[in-house]
Amino acid sequence: MFRYLILCLLLFPCLAATAHANVPSPLGRYFVSDKPFGTGQFSFLWMTIYDISLWTDADTWSYESPFALHIQYQLEIDADDLVSTSIDEMQRNHTIVPELLKRYQQELEAVFPKVKNRDTITAVFTPHKRLTFYYNGDPVGTILDMVFARRFLDIWLHPNSRDPAQQKQLTGQSG
């Protein structure tokens, strides 16, 4: 009996590691699921810019449950371009006063690096607390302003986002 218990204790971590083998870092720290809730891809003309996936353990997606957006880039993009495009896209869905835009820009500049092909940026949302950013699995910054966090995530999750079909795919609303 004791031998069986030891064997189970030794094998369990191996089985858990196998189940999470395909889960991008750092998502295994936050979620039990071994597959994304929804996926999408952003392309321009013939080029894929990035692949995106939404991760959550909730049955339905909402801002009331923890979730993450995981983006894997398929080409090189300067940090300044990531920041300015993010600010432009946030303004598509929300009216933001210039003082806040400047602060948002500064906070994004602190967390966004230049990305290369296959690099990842992951944003983990903890409701009513924080949005934590990871670059290639390493933590790079946290936003505590929940209004800002939602405005940023609404780039992909707002019903009036640039790509409504992708928004539906990510949030589980597509048929």
Biggest sheet overview: 6 strands, antiparallel
Rg of Cα set:
18 Å
| H-E string | HEEEHHEEEHH
CATH level 3 topology:
Chalcone isomerase
Structural class: alpha+beta
In percent, how helical is the residue content?
A: 25-40%
N/C terminus separation:
50 Å
Question: Largest beta sheet: what is the strand line-up?
Answer: 1-2-3-4-5-6
| Helix segment tally | 5
Strand content: 15-25%
CATH architecture: 3-Layer(bba) Sandwich
Write up what this structure looks like.
- This protein is of the alpha+beta class.
- It has one domain: Chalcone isomerase (3-Layer(bba) Sandwich), CATH 3.50.70.10.
- It contains 5 helices and 6 strands.
- The chain has helices spanning 2-19, 79-93, 98-111, 146-157, 164-171, and strands spanning 38-44, 47-55, 67-73, 120-126, 130-135, 138-143.
- Strands 1-2-3-4-5-6 form a 6-stranded antiparallel beta sheet.
- Strand 4 and strand 5 form a beta hairpin.
- Helix 2 packs antiparallel against helix 3.
- The longest helix is centred in the N-terminal third of the chain and has 18 residues, at 2-19.
- The protein is globular and about 40 Å long.
